[in-house]
Write a sequence for this structure.
C-alpha cells in the first residue's frame, strides 16, 4: 500500500489534526511541510488551504474529509463512531469548531498574537480586546461540553477531541485565553489528560521563531 502523504506545515492546527489521526491509527505517513498557497497545495485544494493529502493516486483536501478517509481506510481504533448518535455528536463538534470557533479562537485571536499586525509591530489590542469576550464564551462552552462525559462527543475519545486539541494547545500560551482555560476546570483536566496521548506528543510543532529566541 502506498504511504500516506500529509502536506502542510507542522504548526498548522488542521495539519496536526490529520497527523494525529495517522498517529492514533498507527498509519505510516510522511509530512511534507509545504505552506498554504504553494504549488503543491494549490494543486489539490481549490483555495490553497492546508492540509492536503496524497495516498497513491488519490488526492484530497479538507481536514475532516482527510480524517474520514483515513478512519475508513485503515484498521485501528474508530475515530468516527459508527453508532448513529455518537457519530452525529462527533460530526456536530467538528462542525462547531471548524465553522465558528476556529474563526474566533484561531483566526481573530491567536493569529493576532502570532503574526502581529499593530502599527508598532505588536499585536493589535483593539482587535484582541474586541474578541476576548467571545473567546471566553467559547472556552466556557467547551468546558461545559467536556464536563459531562470527559470527552467532546459523549464518553469516548473521537475525532472531535483530536480536532480541538491543537487549538487548545496554542490557547494555553496566550494571556486571556490561558487564564480562561485555567478557570475552566473540566477543560483543563481534559486537556492535561489528552495531552499525554502519544498522537499529541508526537505531533508537537516547533516553537515559532520569536518564542525560540526567548527560550534560548
Ligand atoms: N476547512 C479547512 C481549513 C484549513 C485551514 O484554514 N488551514 C489554514 C492553516 S491552519 C490555512 O491553510 N490557512 C491559509 C489560508 O486560509 O489562506 C480544513 O478543515 O482543512
Amino acid at each position: 500500500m502506498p504511504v500516506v502523504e500529509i502536506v502542510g506545515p507542522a504548526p498548522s492546527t488542521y495539519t496536526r489534526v490529520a497527523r494525529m489521526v495517522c498517529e492514533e491509527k498507527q498509519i505510516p505517513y510522511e509530512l511534507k511541510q509545504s505552506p498554504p498557497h504553494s504549488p503543491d497545495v494549490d494543486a489539490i485544494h481549490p483555495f490553497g488551504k492546508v492540509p492536503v493529502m496524497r495516498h497513491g493516486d488519490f488526492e484530497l483536501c479538507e481536514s475532516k474529509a482527510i480524517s474520514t478517509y483515513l478512519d475508513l481506510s485503515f484498521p485501528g481504533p474508530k475515530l468516527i463512531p459508527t453508532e448513529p448518535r455518537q457519530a452525529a455528536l462527533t460530526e456536530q463538534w467538528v462542525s462547531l469548531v471548524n465553522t465558528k470557533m476556529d474563526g474566533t479562537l484561531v483566526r481573530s485571536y491567536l493569529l493576532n498574537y502570532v503574526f502581529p499586525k499593530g502599527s508598532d509591530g505588536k499585536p493589535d489590542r483593539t482587535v484582541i480586546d474586541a474578541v476576548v469576550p467571545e473567546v471566553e464564551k467559547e472556552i466556557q462552552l467547551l468546558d461545559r461540553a467536556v464536563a459531562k462525559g470527559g470527552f467532546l462527543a459523549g464518553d469516548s475519545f473521537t475525532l472531535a477531541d483530536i480536532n480541538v486539541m491543537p487549538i487548545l494547545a496554542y490557547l494555553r500560551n496566550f494571556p486571556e485565553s490561558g487564564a480562561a482555560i485555567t478557570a475552566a476546570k473540566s477543560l483543563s483536566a481534559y486537556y492535561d489528560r489528552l495531552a499525554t496521548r502519544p498522537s499529541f506528543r508526537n505531533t508537537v510543532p516547533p516553537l515559532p521563531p520569536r518564542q525560540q529566541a526567548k527560550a534560548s
User: Anything to note?
Assistant: The pocket of glutathione is lined by residues 12-14, 36, 48-50, 62-64, 98 (CB under 6 Å). The two ends are 42 Å apart (CA to CA). The first strand starts at residue 4 and ends at 7. The chain is about 60% helix and 5% strand.
